[in-house]
Amino acid sequence: MALGAVVGAWGAGPASALAAPPHEPSASPDPAGTEAKAAIGRAREAVRAKDYARALLHYEEALRLLPSAKLHFNIGVCHHRLMASQEPGSPAYEAERSAAVTAYNHYLQAAPSAPDTDEVAAMIRALGGTPLVDDPEPWTIELVEPDDVPAAPSFADDESSGWSDGSDAASEAPAIAPPVVPPVAPTPVYRGRFGVFVPVVSVNPRQLAASEELRPLPTLGLGLRGSAFLGPRRRVALGGELALGTQPVSARARHRLGTSWAGVLIEVRHPLRDGRFEIGGGGVVGLGSQGLVYTGNDRLRCAVGREASRRNGLWSGVRLYAAALLGRRRNHELSLRVGPGLAAFAGGTVARMDPDESSCEGEPSAFATLGLREGAALSATVDIGYAPRF
C-alpha cells in the first residue's frame, strides 16, 4: 500500500509538471508610453475647460515622450484656437497663425497617407501657408483676410474621432522623430509709414490754356507723406502730406506758376489676397498756395522782385490708391495715387513798386492780369511715392 502510494506520487509528479504551463515573465510597462497617455489625458481635460494654452503644453509634453502624427495635429488645433482669441493682425495673432501652419505641416509630413490630408492642406492654404504636399521646401506665411480664416477643426482625440483616451497614440502612426522644419517667422504688423512722393498737379487747366502769358503745363514737385495705421485690422491710414511744385519752364522767358499744399490725409486700404499688393482710396484736406515767379526784364507794373504775386486758400482732393509691398518683410511701399481735387484761392497780393503807395491801389493782381481768377479751381493730381513701413 505504501509502495503503491509512492509509485503513484512519482507518476503524478512528471505529469503535473508537464500539464502546468511554463512560467513567462510579464512584460515590463513602457514608462514613456504611460507618461504620454497621462499627458494626453491632462490635455483633454484642458480642452474641455477651453484652456488651450495649457492643453498645448501637455500635447507638446506627450509629443516629446511618444511622437505621433495626431499629436502634431492637436498642437496645430491648439495654436489655431489660440489665434482666434487674439486681435486680428496683432503680433500674438500672427505668431499663433504661423505656429498653426507649422504644426499642420508637421502632421502632413508625419502622416502623408492620412485620409484627411487634403482637408489639412486646404486648412493650411486658408491660413496663408504653403502645404508640404504642394512644396516640400520651407514655406512662408502670406497675409490673409481675418474674415477668410477658417475656424479651427476638432481635436483628433475627441469623442467623435475614436481616439478618446490616448491609448493608441503610438499605433495611429509609426513613432518618428519630429520633422526638422525651419521656423516660420510671423508676418510683421506695421504701425505706420513715412516717405517721399513726386506729384504731378494740374491746377486751373482751362484758365491756363486761355492765358497768353502762362503755359498750360502741370507743376512737378516733391513731397513728404506720413501716416499711422489705425483700427483693429490696421486698414485706416491717418496722417498728413506736404508738397511743393513748379512748372518746368524758364522764369526768364515768361511767368512760371508754382503750387504748394499741406493737408491731413486719410485713406482706407485693402490688402489683396497674396498680401503683396494693396488698393484703397481716401483724400486730403488742408491749405494751398500759388505763386507767380518771373525773372525777366518785362515785369508786371505792380510786381516787385522775383515773385510777382502769391495767393492762398483751401486745398482738397480725392485719391485712388494702389501699392506694391516689396522686400522679404514687405516693409517697402511703392505707391501710385490719382484723383481730382478742388481748391479755392483768394485774389492774390499786389506789390507796391512806387514811392506813392496809392499808385497801385485798385490794380489787379498778377493772377488776374494773366487770366487766373480768384475763387474755386479744379485740379488733378498724379503722384508716385515710396515709403518704408515701421
The overall average pLDDT, rounded, is 79
Structural class: alpha+beta
Main beta-sheet strand count, sense and barrel state:
8 strands, antiparallel, barrel
Helix content bin = 25-40%
Quick recap:
The protein is of the alpha+beta class and 390 residues long. Helix content is 27%, strand content 30%.
Structure description:
The N and C termini lie far apart (108 Å). By secondary structure, the chain is α+β, with helices and mostly antiparallel strands. The radius of gyration is 39 Å and the shape is rod-shaped. Helix 3 runs antiparallel to helix 4 (69-84) and helix 5 (91-110) packs antiparallel against helix 6. A hairpin with a 5-residue loop joins strand 4 (256-271) and strand 5 (277-293). Residues 1-27 and 158-187 have low confidence and may be disordered. The chain has eight helices and eight strands. The chain has helices spanning 2-19, 31-48, 52-65, 69-84, 91-110, 117-126, 205-210, 366-369, and strands at residues 192-203, 219-230, 236-246, 256-271, 277-293, 307-326, 332-345, 375-388. It has an eight-stranded antiparallel β-barrel with strand order 1-2-3-4-5-6-7-8. 35% of the residues are buried.
Which helices and strands, and how do they pair?
Blueprint: H1 2-19, H2 31-48, H3 52-65, H4 69-84, H5 91-110, H6 117-126, E1 192-203, H7 205-210, E2 219-230, E3 236-246, E4 256-271, E5 277-293, E6 307-326, E7 332-345, H8 366-369, E8 375-388
Antiparallel strand pairs: 1-2, 1-8, 2-3, 3-4, 4-5, 5-6, 6-7, 7-8
Helix pairs in contact: 2-3, 3-4, 4-5, 5-6
